[in-house]
Amino acid sequence: MEGFVCHMCKGFVFEMGGNVAVVRRRLRDALVGLCMLALALLIIAKLEQEASIDLGGPFQVVDGDTLSSNGNRLRLLGIDAPELGQQCISGQGSYDCGVSARDGLAAMLDRADWVCEGGRQDKYRRLLVRCASGRTDLAEELARRGLVVAEDDYLAAEAEARAGQRGIWNVTFEKPSDWRRARQLDEMEPDDGFMAFAIERIGAWWRN
Fold first, then answer.
1. How far is 7 from 115, CA to CA, in rounded Å?
2. How far apart are CA 112 and CA 40, in angstroms?
3. Which stretches of 51-186 are DSSP H helices?
4. Residue 183 — very low, low, confident or very high, per pLDDT cuts 50/70/90?
5. How many whole angstroms separate alpha carbon 132 and alpha carbon 138?
6. Can you list the pairs that 121-127 forms with residues at least 24 positions away whose Cβ atoms lie under 8 Å?
7. Which CA distances in Å does 59 have to 13, 22, 69, 72, 108?
8. With the C-alpha atoms ordered 132, 137, 138, 139, is the resulting torsion angle positive or negative?
9. What is the largest CA-CA distance in the chain?
10. What pTM, to 2 d.p., does this model score?
11. Higher model confidence: residue 27 or residue 49?
């Protein structure tokens, strides 16, 4: 009987030792997997950084958050501007807040030299960029002036515009994403020049 008990104890110890070895092996494999994933992410980030493109203009304004430069279409990261033809309601009546956002962006471009940097494209094949002049971030300044709805890094600038009731935060308006969703539209992507003019004229005709 005593020998049988000892045999059982040895078997139990052996089984426990085997389980510990399996757990250690799985932990080791998981750690190696996490290290490989981290390394892959670092490599991807490095490649994106090296593939980054700097553009110094000249820039043309397409709409309130989109530029073009030498055949490249550029989409400002972190903001969403009202679409051309989108109406805002003020105390004096309705107006095209997409045109106001576009004109505000154009005025800012004229007042300083800007450099835009980006490396990725969106589904419209636009280069996703951040633009700056010295320490001034273009998208952040648009948000601070109340010309656009902010996302991510520019929510503090939007909060300033809300507190000061600047731009769209002093009128009644739909968020651009809600406006598009209600009309079952993707983000509008007009061509330069004629298309932007045509959309603006059609909107004016419809209001009349």
1. 78
2. 39
3. 97-111, 138-144, 155-163, 176-182
4. confident
5. 6
6. 122/75, 124/73, 124/75, 124/187, 124/189, 125/73, 126/66, 126/73, 126/74, 126/75, 126/189, 127/53, 127/72, 127/73, 127/74, 127/75
7. 74, 61, 5, 10, 11
8. positive
9. 103
10. 0.66
11. 27
